[in-house]
Amino acid sequence: xxxxxxxxxxxxxxxxxxxxxxxxxxxxxxxxxxxxxxxxxxxxxxxxxxxxxxxxxxxxxxxxxxxxxxxxxxxxxxxxxxxxxxxxxxxxxxxxxxxxxxxxxxxxxxxxxxxxxxxxxxxxxxxxxxxxxxxxxxxxxxxxxxxxxxxxxxxxxxxxxxxxxxxxxxxxxxxxxxxxxxxxxxxxxxxxxxxxxxxxxxxxxxxxxxxxxxxxxxxxxxxxxxxxxxxxxxxxxxxxxxxxxxxxxxxxxxxxxxxxxxxxxxxxxxxxxxxxxxxxxxxxxxxxxxxxxxxxxxxxxxxxxxxxxxxxxxxxxxxxxxxxxxxxxxxxxxxxxxxxxxxxxxxxxxxxxx
Length: 354
What we know:
Elements: H1 3-35, H2 41-61, H3 72-95, H4 98-106, H5 108-120, H6 126-143, H7 151-177, H8 182-209, H9 220-246, H10 249-271, H11 277-328, H12 349-353
């Protein structure tokens, strides 16, 4: 199996794991929050990251991956920024309507495209841009209901969008710059993310719910769902870093909106959530946009690789011609000051194969 085929299988596996684990944890957390009234989302996320770090530490002890330390300041800055972005997203949901929060999530894609275009000179074709517009339109129709604006909520949403975009771009950039795997980056950044959220989590949750997470009555059923949520989060966090590392932050956001549509569909089928024609139409449009984006991304990726191969061929031919010229000029010497009596004889293909 070629390296390209292995990369494609790894990418498909990462995308599949991300979808399955994310939909599973949403269903688990919905039962935990809606049914059991455990509404401390930020603190729960800090526990997710702590369990993820412990799981990866066990995997490291079992030598399932190699620890590769690199720039400690980059890791710490990335971990803290990622933790802050999660906290800001939760605050945005708490101080805004659900519709405005969905608009905040939709704005992450165009913001990411803008940042990558301005600072990384990355170009997005018209086909990619069109597919993203169709996708965002579909998700907007399916999820956005009301748009109740307020100044504090708008400021929090803008901060959440910017920090989330930067954190996801850093995930991709750090993995490529320092040549570390998603597992290695997640293992080193998890403690900073967990510490950040564990510090601000109880305060944010208390601000949003007027409840104390430490005074909550933890029944066996609540503890079961918390443990289950933490275990599933290991797959969610791992697959997130894998997807961004193997693809791009924009692709991860596209996948995130696909997961939103799947959650809506599963909620209607399994939990009998309210559903109407707007949800169905929006999901269908979003799926069309996602398929177009996937197709355009694959085609452009193949064209880019073909162009890179064709660009390398003239360089190889040029280097071969340089060798021939150097031999003709008498520079093909056996040792300093010694010139062979007879000119070198180039062997034919048959002689080389003999």
